[in-house]
């Protein structure tokens, strides 16, 4: 049975926490996000793993897609992350899904006197780490990310890239098994190949109407599948919309048939049966 409260670290060392930022839109199963969390939870390297869903995405096209009518809300994405990952907790590692990015966003918004500040505030990884280090001075944080994102970080495409590389231990997951040249890996970066990962992605899950695929544990944890179904998210939202459209079309057809019948009755009326 998984334990939600691992043994506390020895008094002479800091709590080792692995941070995992994700859209959680939705969190994928053992072939994706779930496999990464399971791997590091079982590794014995960390006391806790903190899953942090993105509150408001840095990229405008993703912000737009995540704010469309019918899209999963932040609270729904956070709940799905709890369902997907917290059950991975074991005796030596506790997994938590936390609203950290929203906390940082609210803090930045409160510090800005401009009433329109919320429209331009963007929370970046550097903001999150700065906030967490202040809130938890006794913790030692590492940050896990995929190889593609790590390459972008090395190229300076992230906000405060240099500071992040200088101040943070990065844990890089390479699902393709292609290791970068050792000279390109700064000190303090560790690369792991998680062998059970597949090509499953959140975007593939969002786009799929194949229930067999969605019920596969490599794609989704069963509790996330049930949550999506109960709340009409993604494929289930499209199915609900299709049912509503069919019902509306049937109702419109019934009304039209009734109108025609009433017109015909008025036009010809009821005639006595011939003898």
Q: Any key phrases for this structure?
A:
11 helices, transferase, membrane, transmembrane, six-stranded parallel β-sheet, 275 residues, nucleotide-binding
Give an account of the 3D structure:
The chain crosses the membrane at residues 247-265. The protein is α/β, with parallel strands linked by helices and 275 residues long. The protein has a single domain (15-233), classed as HUPs (Rossmann fold, 3-Layer(aba) Sandwich). The chain contains eleven helices and six strands. It has helices at residues 33-43, 60-66, 74-85, 100-110, 125-135, 147-154, 161-167, 202-207, 211-214, 222-231, 235-268, and strands at residues 15-22, 48-53, 94-97, 139-146, 169-173, 189-192. The radius of gyration is 26 Å and the shape is elongated. The termini are far apart.
In a nutshell, what does this entry contain?
The protein is of the alpha/beta class. Helices cover 44% and strands 13% of the residues. The chain has one domain (15-233): 3-Layer(aba) Sandwich (Rossmann fold).
Radius of gyration: 26 Å
In CATH, what is the class?
A: Alpha Beta
Helix content: 40-55%
| Strands in their spatial order, largest beta sheet | 3-2-1-4-5-6
Number of domain units: 1
**CATH homology superfamily:** HUPs
Give the low-pLDDT segments.
none
Query: What's the number of extended β-strand segments?
Result: 6
Largest sheet: 6 strands, parallel
CATH architectural grouping: 3-Layer(aba) Sandwich
Q: What fraction of residues sit in β-strands? A: 5-15%
- SSE order, one letter for each helix or strand: EHEHHEHHEHHEEHHHH
Basic shape: elongated
Number of helices: 11
Pfam family, one: CTP_transf_like
Domain Cytidyltransferase-like: 32-207
GO biological process, one term: NAD+ biosynthetic process
Pathway: Cofactor biosynthesis; NAD(+) biosynthesis
């Amino acid at each position: 049975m998984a334990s939600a409260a691992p043994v506390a670290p020895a008094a002479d060392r800091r709590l080792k926490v692995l941070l995992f930022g994700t859209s959680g839109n939705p969190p994928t199963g053992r072939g994706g996000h779930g496999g990464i969390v399971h791997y590091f939870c079982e590794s014995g390297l960390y006391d806790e793993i903190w899953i942090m869903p993105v509150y408001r995405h840095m990229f405008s096209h993703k912000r737009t897609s995540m704010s469309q009518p019918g899209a999963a809300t932040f609270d729904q994405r956070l709940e799905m992350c709890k369902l997907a990952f917290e059950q991975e907790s074991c005796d030596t590692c506790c997994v938590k899904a936390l609203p950290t990015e929203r906390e940082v966003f609210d803090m930045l918004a409160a510090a800005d006197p401009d009433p329109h500040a919320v429209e331009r505030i963007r929370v970046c990884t550097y903001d999150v780490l700065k906030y967490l280090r202040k809130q938890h001075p006794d913790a030692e944080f590492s940050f896990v990310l995929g190889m593609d994102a790590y390459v972008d970080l090395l190229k300076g495409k992230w906000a405060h890239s240099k500071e992040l590389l200088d101040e943070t231990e990065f844990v890089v997951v390479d699902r393709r098994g292609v290791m970068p040249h050792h000279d390109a890996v700064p000190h303090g970066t560790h690369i792991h190949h998680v062998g059970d990962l597949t090509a499953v992605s959140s975007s593939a899950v969002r786009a799929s109407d194949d229930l067999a695929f969605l019920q596969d544990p490599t794609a989704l944890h069963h509790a996330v599948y049930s949550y999506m179904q109960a709340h009409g998210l993604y494929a289930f939202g499209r199915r609900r919309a299709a049912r509503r459209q069919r019902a509306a079309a049937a109702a419109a057809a019934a009304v039209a048939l009734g109108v025609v019948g009433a017109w015909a009755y008025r036009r010809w009326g009821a005639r006595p049966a011939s003898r």
